Amino acid sequence: MKTLDSFEDDVPLFAPCHKLAFNAPFRWLKKGWQDFRNAPLHSFIYGAIFAAVGWVLVYFSWSHEHYLLSGFLFSFLLAGPMLAFGLYDISQQLEQKREPSFSHERRKAIHEMGHELMLAMLLGVVFLIMLIMNAMFANIDATLNQANVLAVVPVSDTVSLLIAAAFAGLFFCAGTFALPMILDRDANAMTAMITSLHAVWKNKSVLALWVLMILGLMAVGFLTGLIGFIVIVPVLGYATWHAYRETIAK
Known about the structure:
The protein is mainly alpha-helical.
């Protein structure tokens, strides 16, 4: 009988993980920066794409539905791993002592398209639930404001931020190692998600530090008008690949 602590080759539930040292995230960032320096052209192109996507999200969320701004900002953080698939492939190519190429990144993305779409669909359902909950609380707050009950208390903004934060944690746990595992092992989406959840749970303190470091760097990116993302996002993408390498056992 299979247990949650086993990993069978025939019907794997999740891949085992290593116990990480608390300072591991600093090593991941160092290796991410090294990859950035070894592939500057690819890094700047991917970083510019991230910055452009961020500007578009902020513009539409701010100009159309202000209460969705926090949700969109958090979704940008959460969508990062999905958009960073090419960055993971660059790190893998550098790891294999190969010159990174866009054609290889495109072929790899197409080859894993099925697993990527399944993972995106699973996470997308959760994201849709988050947006629905935000909209529900916004409507409730608007109704209360019309009745002059809570006119001075921004309930919807506060609740929206809390909901986004809770779902951000869920997305991070489920997705932080999922896509690197799909790229590396051709794993299915469910196995990759369960592996990611298991690895984060087994290394809670280390991954909590990693989250704080990511949020700190992303805050720098937002404070620079998203221009900082041109460098920050590729470095974090490469660092995530090295985090996967050190965390998930072969």
